[in-house]
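As a point of orientation, let us examine one representative protein, giving the amino acid sequence and backbone structure tokens.
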Amino acid sequence: MDSHQPSTPPPLTEDVAVNWIRDFFRDKPFVFFGTGMSCAIDDRFGMPALQEHLSRSIAPDAQASQQVQQWEQVLKTLQEGTDLESALDSVTDSSLLQKITAATGQFIASIDRGYAFRIAGGDVTWPATRFFKRLVDKLPEGDRVLHVLTPNYDMLFEYACDSVDIPYTSGFSGGVQRKTDWPAVSQSLLLPERVRQGSRLRTVYKHRKHVRLYKVHGSLNFFFHQNTVVENNSWMWAPPDFAVRVMVTPGLSKYQTLQSYRQELLKCADAAIEKASQFLFLGYGFNDKHLEEYIKRKLVTQSCKGLIITRDSNQRIEG
């Protein structure tokens, strides 16, 4: 027998799968979660409901022929059965894009607000709450940070963390209006611990076990204000006119917007992805071409481990 021939993998049985999953979770994964995790609590967080809302609510400026033509093209494409993300590819007018972003934010915020109160009151539980609580509690002592990335705009993850006392940060520091400052946030999460070295006790500082949350398409509480991206929870359900939502909307145009906010939204996420060696995907449809470049490079080129947990598969997952 040629010792250089690759060994045949064992047949996939329940025992093999259970052992693989057990081994997978012994090491800390980088977690991606997508719209599927929000739809698990309410289908209105999904694309079909957003498509219906935008179709009803967007009113292009009648005096702007480009807006009218582009929106008519979007509606025509949707009627032909094209998905929302592809249909919005034809939108390039900046004013129309702002209308779409504002309408998207208003719609998601109207649903999100109700769940903020219901989760806080204990009437509703985000389905993955206990799972994330266990992941954080089981973080190794030498690496107390769980990296989590989502394209979701809503705040369900944050409400869930608050409900079970999971410390988390999205990289913003300050008071009511916060600015990106990962070093300051990291410093604030350090705790003093007394350790013995020989006959002496000395104080060392270690991170609290916590989540670093990367909301790479923006969030209901992210805004562009005074030439920078800020986080302000008091604005997220009814923002002032002078604050522009930082929400990367569906369609190819979002990648142009993504580049504008790349430093604020993706810099730290990129670095964390590059360091990770295994990835967990929860309700994630792989519909972000930018992120797929990283994922494919890690899973295929670098042979990192990946586990996908989703209700429905699609061609992007199968591919």
